[in-house]
Amino acid sequence: MTFNRRTPGAHWRHRTPKFAQDSQTLRRLLSALNRDSSIDFATISRTVTEALAFQLPLPERAWVDLTTLKLRGHLQLLLAEYDGDADAPSTLALHRDAYRLLTLCDTFDGTTPPLHAYELMRALAETTRAFVDLHEAAGEPDQ
């Protein structure tokens, strides 16, 4: 065993970290840090689109479980951040459906049939899409 191998990391070259220097990258990073909303609608939209894409045969169970987990997190974030009109009957029904689906997610495990897991994922995606539409409608000023 050589001397350099006795001390962890002693044989590694030490380099100073390099950070982004170009203005476009810095502007993009600053705008991401200063955004008003903590909701990333682009990521949510991409996840919903992937989940609602018609797939034959059924996708792998691991992918369905991972997508369900992502959608669940997106839906919980949208529920927590919603500050629109909560008294409208359609909004109340949407909240009720969202909480019912989130509760149903807790009962699903590895023994759940693949088709049931796939249908739950699609239902979560449709409800998440409806909440995104609700957020966008609440964010627009009345004309």
What can you tell me about this protein's structure?
The chain has 143 residues and is mostly helical. Helices cover 65% and strands 0% of the residues. The chain has 6 helices and no strands. Helix 3 runs antiparallel to helix 6 (114-139) and helix 4 packs antiparallel against helix 5 (89-107). It is extended and about 55 Å long.
List strands and helices in order, with pairings.
Elements: H1 3-6, H2 23-33, H3 41-52, H4 61-81, H5 89-107, H6 114-139
For the termini, the CA-CA separation is: 76 Å
**Low-confidence parts:** none
Strand content: under 5%
Mean pLDDT: 79
Structural class: mainly alpha
Q: Secondary-structure element order, as H and E?
A: HHHHHH
Shape: extended
Q: How many DSSP E strands?
A: 0
The helix tally amounts to 6
Q: What characterizes the major β-sheet?
A: none
Radius of gyration: 22 Å
Proportion in helices? 55-70%
In short:
This protein has 143 residues and is mainly alpha-helical.
Give me some keywords for this one:
single chain, 143 residues, mainly alpha
